[in-house]
Amino acid sequence: MATRTAKVIDWLDDRAGLLSVWNSVFDRKVPKVNWWYTLGSATLFVAMMQAATGVFLSIYYIPTPEEAYSSIDYIMNDVAFGWLVRGIHHWGATLMVILVFLHMLRVFYYGAYKYPREVTWLTGVVLFLVTMGLGFTGYLLPWNQRSYWATAVGSSILGTVPIVGDFLLRVMRGGDDLTILTLSRFYGVHIWFLPASLFGLMGVHLYLVIRNGISYVPRRDE
Ligand code: HEM
User: Fold this and answer.
1) 40 lines ligand 1 (CB under 6 A)
2) Which domain holds residue 139?
3) 39 lines ligand 1 (CB under 6 A)
4) CA of 205 to the centre of ligand 1 (A)
5) This model's pTM is above 0.70
6) Mutational pocket test of ligand 1: of 30, 205, 217, the residue with most ligand atoms within 8 Å of the beta carbon
7) 196 in a structural domain
8) How far is residue 51 from each of residues 56, 166, 179, 188, 194, measured CA to CA in Å?
9) Is residue 124 one of the residues assigned to a domain?
C-alpha cells in the first residue's frame, strides 16, 4: 500500500514537480525563533477561516436594505450551524485585525523590515490596509442602527478630504446618502475586490518570506 502511494507521488512529482514545491514551503531551514514569529501564520489561518465562513454566509445573506438584517437574523436562528458560521466570521474579523497589527509590531520591533525584506514590508502595509477595508465594508452589511450610523460617520470623514472629498464620498456611498447603492457597493467590495487583493497579495508576501528566509531574533548589539 505504502509503495503504491509512493509510486503515485513519484508519478505526480515527475510531471508536476510538487515535491520541490512542498520542500521549499514546508521543509525549509528556519533560524531558532520564538512564539512572536507565529503571528503571521496565525493571521493567514484566520484569513482562510474568514474566506471559508464568508462563502457560506453569502448563500443566505441578502444585500438589500429590506432583507439584510432579517437574512442575518435567519442565519443566526434558523440555519443549521448558522450561528456558529456567523459567529466565527464576526469574531474572526476582530481577531484578524488584532493579529495583523501584532504581527506588524513584531516585524517592526525586530527590525525585520530591513534589507532584503523591504518589499515584504511594503506588501504587508497594503495587506494591513486591505484588512481594515474588509472590516469597514463588512461592518455595514448587517444594516442595523449601529452599522448604518458607523458607516455614515466613517464615510463622512472621507468627505473632509480637501478638493476631492465630496467626489470620494459620492463614489463610496453611490450618491449623497446611504442607500441600497451603498449597501451593494460595500457588499461587492467586501466579497470580491478586497478578498481577491488580499489573497493575491498574501501569495506575493509568502513567496517573499520563503524566498528571503525568516529573519533571526536580533541581538542586543545589533
Ligand atoms: C493578511 C496579513 C498578513 C499575513 C497573512 C502575513 C503572513 C506572514 C507570514 C506567515 C510570515 C512568516 C512568519 C512570521 O514572521 O510571522 C510573515 C512575515 C513577514 N511579514 Fe507578514 N503577513 C501579513 C501582514 C503583514 C503586515 C501588515 C506587515 C508589515 C507592514 C508584514 C510584514 C512582514 C515582514 C517584513 C515579514 C518577514 C519577517 C521576517 O523575516 O522576520 N506582514 N508574514
Assistant:
1) yes
2) 32-212
3) yes
4) 7
5) yes
6) 205
7) yes
8) 9, 33, 26, 14, 11
9) yes
